């Protein structure tokens, strides 16, 4: 039997949607609870409480790369854009893109911007678990794989060390990456997801400039795989480009292009991890304190690798 072209297109669209729902595991609120998402986030919340409650003695975190943000959100927004940098008669230059991220974050608690940073650090583990679980839910319906992804992302050495050393940009990048991946996965089917992905990519690029090349490569791959729906992904990098363009032009004119890869935070010295440490996911030497524990037990690094990997 012959059928109109519009009917055929509609049937094929419904078939693709059914396949996506069955194989991509798009979650709803009930499935989030039924497949263990709630328990996963609750476990991360309890772990965060154990970590932070004994240390909460004020409304701001100071130490490592952390400094008080400022007296008000208005003071943070005054630092964005082009203006005089440094103390006194400093050069006129564009602000670091991360200044916009700080201004938005500080506006959450406009009366005391540093309180937002404190809340972010305290809630980092459950937020990481939630983001990783939802991102994994777009890729698999297996509840154990979702929980495993959330566990690995929540207890990643990069996040735990960033929390311990007060590396706010690294913490933000770690928390935002799963949301960026989730938005990109949904972007071919939604302009709203595409817009959110653009904002998240700009925030990730401002927080961790060294990740920009990798993020752009993954964006190209996702755009190519989207096929005829690639148009919704093409504009995702536009907010990032608009955010970094003034600083890129300024650094190039000053002959300092390598400065673009520097982390946007208070400079702090550290010893890079060796090859075994990097293989285990530790960005700095000492394996996040495990090296001292291993030396005390007399195991040596070869014997400690299985212990650290399991932990």
From TrEMBL:
- Would you tell me the protein name for this molecule? Glycosyltransferase family 2 protein
Molecular function GO labels: transferase activity
Q: Which residues cross the membrane?
A: 32-53, 115-136, 143-162, 197-221, 233-250
Keywords, comma-separated and alphabetical: Membrane, Transferase, Transmembrane, Transmembrane helix
